[in-house]
Amino acid sequence: MIELDRVSVTYAGAATAVLSDVDLRIPEGEMVLVMGRTGSGKSTLLRALNGLVPHFSGGTLAGRVVVDGRDTATHRPRDLADVVGFVGQDPMAGFVTDNVEDELAYGMESLGIAPDVMRKRVEETLDLLGLAGLRHQPLAQLSGGQQQRVAIGAVLTTHPRVLVLDEPTSALDPLAAEEVLATLQRLVHDLGLTVVLAEHRLERVVQFVDRIVHVPGGALPVEDGAPADVLATTPIAPPVVELGLAAGWSPLPLTVRDARRRSVDLRGRLTAVRPPEHRAHAVNGEVAATKDLVAGYPRRPVLNGITLGVRSGEIVAVMGRNGAGKSTLLRSLVGLHKPSSGKVTAGEVGLVPQVPSDLLYAASVRAECATADRDAKVPGGSTRALLDRLSPGIDGDHHPRDLSEGQKLSLALAIVLVAAPRLVLLDEPTRGLDYLAKRRLVEVLRDLAGTGHGVVLATHDVELVAEVATRVVVLADGEVVADGAAPDVVVSSPAFAPQVAKIMAPQAWLTAADVAGALAEARA
Length: 524
Hints:
Layout: E1 2-10, E2 19-26, E3 31-35, H1 42-48, H2 52-55, E4 60-67, E5 70-71, E6 84-87, H3 91-94, H4 100-111, H5 115-128, H6 144-156, E7 162-166, H7 174-191, E8 194-198, H8 202-205, E9 211-214, E10 223-225, H9 227-231, H10 239-247, H11 256-262, H12 264-269, E11 286-297, E12 300-311, E13 315-319, H13 326-334, E14 341-346, E15 349-352, H14 365-376, H15 382-390, H16 405-417, E16 423-427, H17 435-450, E17 454-458, H18 462-468, E18 471-476, E19 479-485, H19 486-490, H20 499-504, H21 512-523
Parallel strand pairs: 3-8, 3-9, 6-7, 7-8, 13-17, 13-18, 15-16, 16-17
Antiparallel strand pairs: 1-2, 1-4, 4-5, 9-10, 11-12, 11-14, 18-19
Helix pairs in contact: 4-5, 4-6, 10-21, 14-16, 15-16
């Protein structure tokens, strides 16, 4: 179905190739995960499958990419539209219409599909992705996760033979992500659809895929093999695999179910060991508070009477299903969303939005960093130093819009964090970040909290919450339904518990690093 023969891609002005001599064969009816570090070339590989690279992106493509017998050198993206469906990282960038139902129909209209068939497929897709209640909603008023489901649905309605997805679950809550991935797996098994997806949150995906393609970046060769084989040899692995490595299990488990069965002895060894508390050690005065906050859209409130305080030294994770009001809460705290009623009290606030490119205006990374230094009144080079800490090796001459989504996020984080506002707000701060970049972000956030700043994360990344949160607030339908220390809230939650907590329950372990540390102490 898909053949890549010695494919190399070099963008204009770049000193080295993004991809180098890639040989890959993907047969019909496989679900393949493309993984790699932020900026390694995953998105370039995906975009080469439907001709966006090089016909839209520019640059030079050497070698051959053949999809369903069509060579992308001679077939432009429009010539492959009936075969390859593509969903990028930013759903809004691909939308053409104004509401959900019209967007689902647009691709079929472009292909000239009969109206009665279009109507049937729209209804099937609305049900398949849980969008029926949103059919008439304006796309601009949907949450990021809802927009992502619409983008996937708009491609599925055209019934492509190959589906290419770039970070398809990054803005979805855990249950919605599992539903989407299970749906894709069902399409693969029942209809023979070929699915190629890039995803950083490996803990969500590895149990569904047949194969993993690891793109290490630069001139290093691409690895291709069974999930367990590839994950055992790379520095990138989900928590369930990290736990297996710490416990010395072989073969390594890929699912919570497998690891749970293997963990009986491990849990017995740690019965008398107390897990780390994951609580804020020095919590001082409030840096922000809301009182009976009601906010949202005209005639449609999203937040219904939220009363909440954030203290300096806290790292608060705000969780909840898509559309629960997480982003609206953050935007209200920073003053971008005017309350309908109630009160918001906050001092100096910095917000990294869900779409980081909203903060990027300069013509180069170097200019963005210099502007941020001046605005924050900090020594020159401060923003660049923070960027290198989050995502090292980004060329200062690159245009910010040409960066990968993870690199854009790192740059936006550096711009906001360099000013060290008393309250730092991060909306889905790990979209596009690999595990190594996420660990560096965790270090930065801990440093901020340790120096008296308050941090609020709106996130679906349960593994990030397990690593860094000292407090978790769960929203549902615009109301607070849970508020407490991270272990107290997430361990008992089927939806928001991290992988290690599910494996080690009822013991309150949250991360593989916690377990590895306890095992090391026991051996000492």
